[in-house]
Amino acid sequence: MAYLLYKYIRNKRREKRARAAEGTSGLHSDSDGSAPTLRQTRSETPVKEELSPEEVYRIGSWTIKRSMLHNLVLLVALAFPVYLETLDYTVVATAQPIIASHFDRLDLQSWIGEIYLLTSTVFLPLYASVADVYGRHFALQSSLFLFLIGSAICTGSMNMPTMLVGRGISGVGAAGMLTLPRIILADTASVGQQANQTSILFVLYAIGYCTGPIIGGALSTVNFRWIFAINLPVTVLAMVLAFLLLRGHAHEVDHTEERVRRIQGMSRLSKISALDWLGTGLFVAAGILILLALNWGSLQEWDSTKVIVCFVVGGVIFGLCLGWEVYMQRRQAANIDSRLGKIFPMLPTVIFTSIDVVACQAVTFAAGMVMLVMFYYLSIFYAIVQGTDATNSGVQLLYFAPGLGVGSILNTILIKATGQPKWAMTLGTMVTTVSLGVISMAVQENDQGLVKGMLVMAGAGVGLSFAPAAVHARFAQPANRVAIVSAYQRFFQSFGGTIGLAQAAAVLNSKVASYLKNLVVTGQISPADAATLSGSSATSIGAINSLPPALHTAVQDAFRSGTRWLFISMIPWIGVTVFLTLILSNITDPEKEKKAQAAQAKEGETEVEEKVAQSP
Q1: How many whole angstroms separate alpha carbon 39 and alpha carbon 600?
Q2: 304 Ramachandran zone, left/alpha/beta (phi>0; psi -120 to 50)
Q3: DSSP at 243
């Protein structure tokens, strides 16, 4: 089959070259011996865009556009960091209880994932500044190195504190692995190309989220250290590929920007002063406190002292961060030659004055919320309400992944057809809103076929809206803000997931408790049974499955009701984004503008040549 395909392609190429040769020979002779005019030549010869030798790359008889080869090289080099980071998070999430049990610290098992999530979220904006100051390749290598160090510490950890330190360092590296691929691809000048690339990366994220729990379960049965040890050779391979393929290919520092020219010629060590360390420190501190409050509040009482303190102190510190950023950027605008003029702001407030950027961040926030809630709470639904085991519960999530793939393909087609990402976002947010509403009804009616179908539909909705939001935000801002806009796209995705998990936990726990309380009030279960449920008998899946049949059914019905309201609670978030996408402005494609200007200039030159040829 491969040989026949090769022959077919070879024959087609020969026919194409023969037709081109015939067209060329017709230019040199005519039936009456006179040379054709320029206008006759254009009308008789097929119009074809000729590529200069600098624009193509030849491999034997094959000719490949250098731009296409460049994009392929970037995708191959970036695929490893993207999949590696996503896989690591989901694999470890599955094995957290096993890891904590090995150190006899099951009470700290949630921190294995939490500390990674915290550091990988709050350090995202810092990498945007590092990418602008030091270049994309250096920033990516730094993040991979930190991830490697963190994984090595986790592999050899002998106690829980060492494990948590390793996870924290891995999270700092993962922040760069999350945002730098987007920054590098956002440097692409074409809307269509970036839509393709962003969709491919998004599918890699989805595959990692879906396959991670299965791989994590398999590795943890052998030895939990393999979960971290397997990262070591893969990370080294990613670093080698980044060095060979990205160095010289990825966009580096923009030396046309005034601030960049100010630090040009400085050593790598001296450039550290160009990073916004005060703003970063305040942002990291505020982010950690607010994320901790959201996490603790979803698991405990929202009015507990530590939750309130974290919210208040985190809010105050974030206010100080905003104040510093506004002050610094006003000083920079007044005097670029000042010491502050060399600093790259961690939070450029000017980007949030754009309605387009704010709307795109909101769409990304909602998409991140839907993704994480789906991945985490559907497995709980299947395990408790449907009674499936852990492996089969994870397999049910695979229905979401094909939908993501379909949505990614559709958004690429829509963007290329319309030239505007906003229509794909509008359609995607509408589809997601409808699918969440139908899923909530299907859960209540226990219609498993409809639940699975709506999982595919919800995945398609997220796939339709997620990548176009990144593309639209990138082209709604000047090229010198590519890094920071891309970094905050990823930040709001993670933040949306965190808010979604906190909200889902609060809604689920509240509705389960109120449902069981109502059963006691109506006399459907006795106070003694209620006391049994409020004790330790309903704190794990195994304990729930061991309950008497009547109580077991009551708990299943309570979780079914809680899951239904969990999905309903997300609908307002997605519904708001539908209206936000309708007010988005049109973006311009620099690549198309460049080609149009070149074609216009060429047409002008041709008209001049015709006039010269026709003049006596």
Answers
A1: 16
A2: beta
A3: I
- Residue 115, token pair as written in the block: 């500390």
Residue 271 exposed, middle or buried by CB count within 10 Å (0-12, 13-18, 19+): middle
Question: What are 63's strand-pairing partners?
Answer: 58
pLDDT digits (tens, 9 = 90+) for 405-434: 788 888 888 888 888 888 999 999 999 999
Amino acid at 400: F
Alpha-carbon distance of 228 to 87, in angstroms, equals 11
Range with the poorest average pLDDT among 161-165, 197-201, 601-605? 601-605
Q: Specify whether domain 354-511+563-596 bears CATH 1.10.10.10.
A: no
Q: Could you tell me the fold of the domain covering 67-255?
A: Growth Hormone; Chain: A; (1.20.1250)
- Helix (H) or strand (E) segment spanning residue 65: strand 62-65
For residue 200, give both structure tokens.
């491919």
> Rounded to an integer, what distance in angstroms lies between the CA atom of residue 295 and that of residue 280?
22
The pLDDT confidence band at residue 76, using thresholds 50, 70 and 90, is confident
Q: Write out the DSSP string of 136-150.
A: HHHHHHHHHHHHHHH
DSSP string over 247-272: TTTS----TTSHHHHHHTT--TTGGG
Cα 10 from Cα 6, distance rounded (Å): 6
Q: What share of the chain is helix, strand, coil (3-state, %, to 5)?
A: 80, 0, 15
Between CA 454 and CA 207 the distance in angstroms is: 18
Q: What does the alpha-carbon distance between residue 497 and residue 373 come to, in Å, rounded to a whole number?
A: 7
CA–chain centroid gap for 94, Å, is 21
DSSP state of 246: I
Name residues whose C-beta falls within 8 Å of residue 112's C-beta, 6 or more positions apart in sequence. 92, 96, 99, 100, 163, 164, 167
Give the bridge partners for 62, in sequence order.
Answer: 59
Structure tokens at 315: 């809010």
pLDDT digit string, tens, across residues 25-72: 444 444 444 444 444 444 444 444 444 444 554 555 555 555 556 667
DSSP type of residue 57: E
CB-based contact 587:475 (threshold 8 Å): yes
> Which own/partner contact pairs does 441-447 have at CB distance under 8 Å and 24+ positions apart?
441/564, 443/381, 443/385, 443/560, 443/563, 443/564, 443/567, 444/560, 444/561, 444/564, 446/385, 446/560
Q: Are 445 and 560 in contact (CB under 8 A)?
A: no
Of 474, 481, 456, 565, nearest to 515 by C-alpha is 565
